[in-house]
Fold this sequence. Notes:
Elements: H1 34-43, H2 46-50, H3 69-86, H4 91-100, H5 109-119, H6 128-139, H7 153-159, H8 165-170, H9 176-180, H10 186-210, H11 215-218, H12 222-234, H13 240-270, H14 275-279, H15 290-308, H16 311-333, H17 340-352, H18 357-368, H19 371-382
The structure holds magnesium ion.
Amino acid sequence: MDKNYSGILTPYACNDKKSLGRLFNEETPIYRNNYQRDRDRIIHSAAFRRLEYKTQVFVNHEGDLFRTRLTHSLEVAQIARSIARELGLHEDLAEAIALSHDLGHTPFGHAGQTALNQCMKDYGGFEHNLQSLRVVDKLEQKYADFAGLNLTFETREGILKHCSQNNAKLLGSVGRRFLDKTQPSLEAQLTDLADETAYNNHDVDDGLRYGLISVNNLLKIELFRRQHDIVIKRYTNLNDRHLIHEIIRRMINVMVVDLIDTSRNNIENAKPESIDDIRNQTKPLMAFSESMCEQKLELKQFLRTNLYQHYRVHRMSMKACAIIDALFEAFMNDPRILPTEALEHCKQLEKNNPQEGMARGISDYIAGMTDRYAIVEYERIFNPRQLSFVNLIP
Ligand code: MG
């Protein structure tokens, strides 16, 4: 007996019973639906566990209170599930996409991705979104019947948020929409916007906690100021921690409510009757209102100038780039210093693609590292005082 999805599903939601399937055909589980199985496989993967020690903006060891990619992914899942449930979309699928969307990120956040992409420029480049798909399709090695996690088409489609035309041609059915200019499922669309909602708000929170931005500066930003004014009117004498949390929880709420209301309106106007009607739209139906888009843009620009480009963040980014560059160069110059398993992986890829295989294998190894593993690996290779054969982290 198949387990039915227990929520309400609209006819244009993804339906686990009508999934476009997995690359390797498997029977439906007895007590779970197919998207629950996807989510469970993601949670049990090594790449998911590593998210705990990967950075968004701040390097992991800077402080225990900051977001990591793991807590970020959980926040995205929470927001995505709320939206999916309210709109009659598949909550389990939204959760699976949210929990896997960042699996391909390098150590050290965006600085790490930029550095690795630069290292890989003559070998096909590096893109974290594509790497997330590579992790679930190929790199996780634990199942006897297939490589990767063998996820459903719908989860894989949601993971692949952007893709160049050239890469899309290499990806088969999951890359098709980038060539056809069609849309992904509503679950994929909403998770993408839940991601943005989560990081805009938690970066404000982390930036304030780290002292890189201040409440006073943020009062210039409409989205923040509106909620700030509501909070101080309602509560007098709040300490900073309460004040910030009360503002941020309201900011998340107004963004989510705006997203649900606007999208519901778009859906009502488009009158889709099936998932195909969703895919054939000329633009995504999940959207923020125009006014929220403007406010969001203002906040993003503020964060870019005041947080992401803060000199202290730049210093971390510079160190991160130096570590990634040095590791990549050292492994390329002498692959024999790679750990046995990583070297085997590289040789396998080189056999299939003599020009780019070795570099791709090294990029897989580096991209899989956590922040702290990359730092320790760098120390082991370049610190002349570390001549011991004993590895701190095997
Ligand atoms: Mg994300």
